[in-house]
Write a structure and sequence with these properties.
Blueprint (H helix, E strand, L loop, with lengths): L5 E10 L6 E11 L4 E6 L5 H9 L7 E8 L2 E2 L5 H7 L4 E4 L3 H4 L6 H11 L6 H14 L5 H4 L9 H13 L5 E4 L8 H18 L2 E7 L7 E5 L1
Parallel strand pairs: 3-8, 6-7, 7-8
Antiparallel strand pairs: 1-2, 1-4, 3-9, 4-5
The protein binds adenosine-5'-triphosphate.
């Protein structure tokens, strides 16, 4: 059997604290195969975001991380910041909960997507990157993408902003897209649409998608796989 794309083993994350350490994630195991849509569900505070950030190497410096996060034959926990930043955005892309704080207010969304295209491939001209940005906006279902590429994030609705985040995530044909509670801030109908866009992104790029969401209950974050 082929090796999983991502294999998380005994992942634990602790934040030291004078009034008692915070054990945010305790001994989590899961595998994600190439092209799989993978769901992580858990109540608020159960460690969904912290475990996603651990995979991306984006936890604050004081976080104590143990276990193994194998991706592409390497343990990501052994890599330094430079090696990790090469993987981020190119092989692994992330869609954050709050697109407004992930997007820059001072550049148009088209320029931001174009920059995401060029950051990992400087051989792409600015013009080609801008054209690709418009194409990506079309893929994620932004109407009139040529015009909307010149808009700023605050001119979009929450659902549209999350579509822009997904466009940025797929800009470099990643192998894994991590969506950390991508629908939390959205109303129910828009939530369903964003999950459809993520599914479409998976189909188009062949990337695996790891998406987390909140449930109300007393269970810790639980990984679930679906084909
Ligand atoms: N930088 C940090 N320093 C200290 N504790 C932290 C830090 N980040 C997260 N935590 C704690 O880790 C635990 C898990 O947080 P996490 O954000 O992963 O939960 P979550 O399941 O994503 O919740 P939500 O659904 O509300 O986003 C929480 O108790 C949180 O307070």
């Amino acid at each position: 059997m082929a090796e999983p794309l991502l294999s998380v083993r005994n992942l634990s994350v602790t934040f030291p604290n004078r009034s008692g350490d915070v054990h945010a994630v305790r001994g989590v195991d899961y595998d994600i195969d190439e092209g799989e849509f993978f769901g992580i569900v858990g109540e608020s505070g159960s460690g969904k975001s912290v475990s996603s950030l651990a995979v991306m190497g984006l936890l604050p410096d004081n976080a104590q991380v143990t276990g193994e996060i194998r991706f592409g034959g390497r343990n990501l926990l052994d890599l330094d910041d430079r090696a990790l930043s090469r993987i981020r955005g190119r092989d692994i892309a992330i869609v954050f909960q709050d697109p407004l704080s992930a997007l820059t207010p001072v550049y148009t969304v088209g320029d931001q997507i174009a920059e995401a295209v060029r950051i990992h491939d400087r051989a792409v001209t600015r013009q080609a990157a801008s054209a690709r940005a418009v194409e990506l906006l079309r893929v994620v279902g932004i109407p009139d993408p040529v015009r909307r590429a010149s808009s700023f994030a605050h001119e979009f609705s929450g659902g549209m902003r999350q579509r822009v985040m997904i466009a940025m995530a797929i800009a470099n044909n990643p192998r894994l897209i991590i969506a950390d509670e991508p629908t939390t801030a959205l109303d129910v109908t828009i939530q369903a649409q964003i999950l459809e866009v993520l599914e479409k992104a998976r189909e188009i790029t062949g990337a695996a998608v790891s998406s987390s969401r909140t449930t109300w209950g007393s269970s810790p974050a639980t990984p679930t796989a679906s084909g």
